[in-house]
Amino acid sequence: MNPPTQHGGRRGALLAAAATVVLVLLAGVVIILGLRHQGPPQPVAAAAPAAPAPATPAPGPTRSGPGAGAAAPTTPTTPTAKAPVASVDLGPIMRGSAPVRLDVPSIGMHSSTFVDLGRAADGSIEVPTDFAAVGFYTPGPTPGQFGPAVIAGHVDSHQGPAVFYRLGALRAGARISVGRKDGSTATFVVDRVASYPKARFPTTEVYGNTTSRAELRLVTCGGSFDDRSGHYVDNVIAFAHLVSAA
Questions:
Q1: What gap in Å lies between CA 63 and CA 146, rounded to an integer?
Q2: Which residues lie below 8 Å from residue 43, measured CB to CB, with a gap of 6+?
Q3: What pLDDT, in 10s, does the model give residues 160-176?
Q4: 3-class SS of residue 135
Q5: Considering only the top CATH level, what class is 99-245?
């Protein structure tokens, strides 16, 4: 007579497997909590109050500002020669074309997943639902056009770092390449990277057409993480300008 079959070994294996799964899940939670506790890289310094921008002439077809005529004299005098017209270099300007690729080599950031962003019901910019995607703010200029083009992305998710996790590590002088739908590439140089409290978001600097050239803004979250709200308290913004159109 054969001895009865023992099931203890299988049950023990199942319990061990279940314990392993629990440990893996716990390890994942610990890693995520550790990332949140440590936080993503931050800019070197918080943003200083912006100085008033000097007045710049509206762009003309030749990219040079119109000359200002000399003031009319109050009494008849010998005519005064006009001052020479100063040429204003606005840099390269490209025709409109939607972005399809974003490369920031200095922080190892590359994405070819773009989504269109508009305005949410409360007037704020929409955010991508895909944490690996970057979003292009379609009401504004496309990258390379005159004015500030805006690209936004998440800093992290419940699973770990997202597409713009290392944006705060970006430094002035770094290059950003944006591949466009028409096959061209717009190359930008970073002017500065700064952190702003969300309550004092620099709306005009990011979205306002106050620039005299083609520029780019990369926007994500940053600062400390607020466990009560489940959000970061700051925004990290990279400001860049177009240097090459190819």
A1: 11
A2: 168, 193, 194, 195, 222, 236
A3: 999 999 999 999 999 99
A4: strand
A5: mainly beta
